[in-house]
Amino acid sequence: MVLKDSLMELMRQKSISKITIKALCEKADINRTTFYAHYTDQFQLLKSIEDETLSWVKETIAGFHGKTGKDDFTRNIEKVFEYLIENKNHIQVLMSEQGDIDFQRNLLAVLYEQCGIWLMDDIDLAKSELYFVFLVNGSIGLIQHWLKNGLKETASEMSELIYDMRFHHHVKVSD
């Protein structure tokens, strides 16, 4: 745990590729032998943190499938935002610009696929996929903004916002 916390702290200042095992071990106050007994490098350590986060999300949303009503959807997404708040120290780094974009996309894709959010009845499949890509990437930006600005909105408000963005995608632009 101390290694994971130390990596997250160091990643607040620099990208993972610029973090040395020496700096990580100094921060965690452990020797390199102990580090190498658990991980081959800092990338494997980061991957283990990402995998734990993904596992939690998959476990939490396992029962979501097929529940597409607004109350079900917002309640389920709210649980995820509550997790983000409870684990904000790690999540702020994992979801930041310093984090791995593939992990971020995977996290949101897993979440939205399980919620059935990408299946849109009113548009063809090709466009549905484009909406899904937009929603996933837009959500990453939204979450990054939310985390950076001190989590001002509640988990409930954030889930409502995601719901509104998904289900009110036909926006009229005034002249």
Compact overview of the structure:
With 175 residues, this protein is mostly helical.
Characterization of this structure:
- By secondary structure, this protein is mostly helical.
- Residues 170-175 have low confidence and may be disordered.
- The longest helix has 24 residues, at 125-148.
- The protein is elongated, with a radius of gyration of 18 Å.
- It is built from nine helices and no strands.
Question: What are the key terms here?
Answer:
69% helix, 9 helices, mainly alpha
Instruction: Using the CA coordinates, give the radius of gyration.
Output: 18 Å
Structural class: mainly alpha
Quaternary assembly: single chain
The backbone outline, from C-alpha atoms, is elongated
If helices are DSSP runs of H or I spanning 4 or more residues, what is the number of helices? 9
Low-pLDDT residue spans: 170-175
Beta-strand proportion: under 5%
Average pLDDT confidence is 82
The largest β sheet comes out as: none
User: What percent of the residues sit in helical stretches (DSSP H or I)?
Assistant: 55-70%
Number of strands: 0
Order of helices and strands: HHHHHHHHH
Distance between the termini: 55 Å
Secondary structure: elements and pairs:
Elements: H1 2-11, H2 21-28, H3 32-38, H4 42-61, H5 70-86, H6 88-94, H7 101-114, H8 125-148, H9 155-167
Helix pairs in contact: 1-2, 1-6, 4-7, 5-6, 5-9, 7-8
